[in-house]
Write a structure and sequence with these properties.
Number of domains: 3
Shape: globular
Strand order of the largest sheet: 10-11-12-13-15-14
Strand content: 15-25%
Helix content: 40-55%
Distance between the termini: 51 Å
Bound molecules: cytidine-5'-monophosphate, zinc ion
Radius of gyration: 22 Å
Length: 479
Amino acid sequence: MASVHPVTALADSATACAERLRAADSVLLASHIDADGLTSAAIAATALERASIPFETVFSKQLDAAELESIAASDHDTVLFTDFGSGQLDLIAGHEAAGDFTPVIADHHQPADASTEYHLNPLLVGIDGASELSGAGASYVLARALASSTQQDSDNRDLAALAIVGAVGDMQAGVDGLSGANTQIVSEGVEAGVIEESTDLTLYGKQTRPLPKLLEYASDARIPGISNDAAGAIEFLSDLDLDLKSDGEWRCWVDLADDERQVLVSALVQRAVKSGVPASRVDDLVGTSYQLTREEPGTELRDVSEFSTLLNATARYERADVGLAVCLGDREAALDRARQLLRNHRRNLSEGLEWVKTEGVTVEDNLQWFDAGNRIRETIVGIVAGMAVGAPGVRRDLPIIAFAEKSDSEIKVSARGSHQLIREGLDLSAVMREASRAVDGDGGGHDVAAGATIPAGRQAAFVDHANELVGEQLDEKSN
Ligand code: C5P
Ligand code: C5P
Ligand code: ZN
């Protein structure tokens, strides 16, 4: 049997966490409401179930003091936090000291200044939590350790499929696919026959979008006359010497044979070059993609990236139960509901993006920001901010900060940076934590993507602090 520790550096903490879970009377599994949080919960739930450890599951938008109070009030001796917990370690340690529960944490966020015994986090062993291991990856490492310490049939390697959906949902994959510890999980999934890795077109929607939509909506590619151009995309496809319709309906990428794909990719590349698209962006048209081999071809679940969007469409709209059911294998009612939610999510993203493009952003010395008020849902404002970068008027060389109303008294802040800015010294996790604390809020996250909650009306002061902090980070590095 292959090693039970896909990520050797995490072996000790995974074993300790698994032992603690086995000793628990009952476990409360608490997880975050995004694609990574849902897949984390599904992996942990399956592993606990297979190990015959009784548990209950709850989801939370943000693990703050109030949320932890309610978790502490529940009747479980052990709380397993997945995809969050590290950032709130100070608060959690307080509950532990008070004897409320024993925490077990499988997370990848920047830890707060405190420590606890059962803490599995790539950042504690020098692995980058923003790009090399997700919450679902950390949960997978735990699941593998649990399998090895219990008498059970499954070694849990099938759960690698969900771990990869979580990592891709957290934007950990580049054009060349996943890296670092994530690749060890991919290898286990390939061996277990649940994941297929291939070199393919990188555009989003290969399983479910009819070809003209696949090309038209590929806004990242920005090919003049094709991207954002319905008629242009149809004309381009019609000019190819291929039969791309079946029964009068446009086929999807997944329906094409290898030689047909080849023709289409070459034509697209040629067209991009001819229209002056920079070489680096042309290269990005082809890259590594991941499919889940046990899922039906032509469904959102087959393609890891489409699967993760489907999950965001549930959990970020208070329907984590739907996404969890899909992760756990429901292909009937839950999948139908998830697809309805996906249509709604897509509409909200595109309306949100339009709103940002119309209203524009305010540029400060070291960052740019917009305040969406109640125009964009606080749970998706971070995704919209990320999508807005590169749109006309939104700069790529500055971090972007977005505000949205959370309630009458609270504002959600989301921040996104680029890998180039990280190399120059940017750490948005520290910026969000410090700037929010300066205005009586709290925050954290990753260097490249972070968030906070602050009191209503403190946005301007927050921007001032954040602007100054980013300036210091970039200055320090350049000196
Ligand atoms: O809480 P969690 O770690 O699951 O969320 C990470 C968030 O950061 C996701 O919303 C993901 O899309 C975002 N992210 C990003 N760009 C990156 C890495 C992460 O926007 N390069
Ligand atoms: O919500 P959003 O997608 O912008 O979150 C980006 C990252 O910041 C996520 O990893 C999230 O868990 C983290 N975050 C945080 N504290 C907050 C808000 C977000 O650690 N108050
Ligand atoms: Zn995550």
